[in-house]
Amino acid sequence: MAKFRKKKSGGQTAINTASLPDIVFMLLFFFMVSTTMKEVDLKVEVRPAEATELSKLEKKELVTFIYVGVPAKSYQGLYGSEPRLQLNDQFATVGDIQSYIAQSRDAMRESEQAKMITSIKADKECPMGIITEVKQALRKAAALKINYSANEKAEVR
Questions:
Q1: Where is the chain membrane-spanning (predicted)?
Q2: Model pTM score
Q3: Which of 35, 36, 53, 108 has the highest local Cβ count within 10 Å?
Q4: 15 inside domain
Q5: Could you tell me if residue 59 is inside a domain?
Q6: Is residue 31 scored above 80 in pLDDT?
Q7: For the chain, how long is the longest CA-to-CA vector?
Q8: How does DSSP classify residue 88?
Q9: What is the tens place of the pLDDT at every residue in 79-120?
Q10: 38 Cβ contact list (under 8 Å, min separation 6)
């Protein structure tokens, strides 16, 4: 009679890691392409008003934002507690709006300059006088397409 012996296990076979760097670089490339960076750090507090009839903007690269609100608590010691304008990452005055719009237009392609939209993101408690001054400055800068940013109003049941 023959004896049957179990094969001695020589350990588990090693996992092939030859394709691991390819996978890591493919994931890295995917996240680099699909991630967008935050463009503006808000220095003013903006609590948008609520509205019932809203529409989304199609091409956000054509939108130039103007933020209006009370400076954040960390900036109130320097700028006070009155509503201020923020253009890009810095505080500004109404007189700076024309040059800001001109710079934004110059950064766009010539075919898209006529489609540029200026979006005003204002705090709901902001006085209407500041918004009127901003609109007058936009009129002087020939930025006539204006959008007001708002949050969708929650339905009360």
A1: 12-33
A2: 0.74
A3: 108
A4: no
A5: yes
A6: yes
A7: 106
A8: T
A9: 999 999 999 889 999 999 999 999 999 999 999 999 999 999
A10: none
